[in-house]
Amino acid sequence: MEHDYKDRPSGSIHEGSEADTAIEPVSAIYPYQFTPQQLMFLCQVVSDTANVSGNIAEIGCAHGYTTLFLNRYIDGLRCAPKTYFAIDTFSGFAPDDVEFEVRVRYKAREMYDAFRDNSVDAFRASMVRASAKRVTAIQADVNHFDLRTLGEVAFAIVDVDLYRPVSKALPELYESVTPGGVIVVDDCNPTNFYWDGAYEAYQKFVKSINRRPEIVHGKLGVIRM
Asked: In a 10 Å sphere around its CB, with 0-12 CB exposed, 13-18 middle and 19+ buried, how is residue 109 labelled?
């Protein structure tokens, strides 16, 4: 972000002053697993589906950075109230999913130790602090949770990374997403050795419904209803 120091208020610290040397640099961390262009695309889909019947579902939300970003965006829209379902184990990858990657897809087990430093209570506390009142957190392994029980869905983000959970989620969401709705699958990048299971599951599913793959911004697999 650029700053205009010409408009610096009276009494502020000027470059080269003694006080300047005492200021610690800001530790800037970019917390998102999406590029700005990918986040802009997700916002565009939110806008495009704002008046489509159904709620929003984010399958795989980790600590909730994208959840909060999109909810802030929704706050600025004039649309009918929607529930934003955030579904995750909140404890990392399911052991059976990792076992499948290791035994069937020949991955190294240690590749999938991420996202364990989380809890559903911490996630909910983050939503409360940010006043994200439309978010409903559901702690579940998607392999054992019927996504059709969410009811009508206008927009679904599938961000569970591995082959088994993506394969399980897509048919159920396809039944739930209403006309005009959209499903976006993250990590549809065949060159990413860690998460190419999501790409394989997406490709297999779109073939099964006689659709052509639509992958945008390098890794977002899209299914439009």
From this structure: exposed
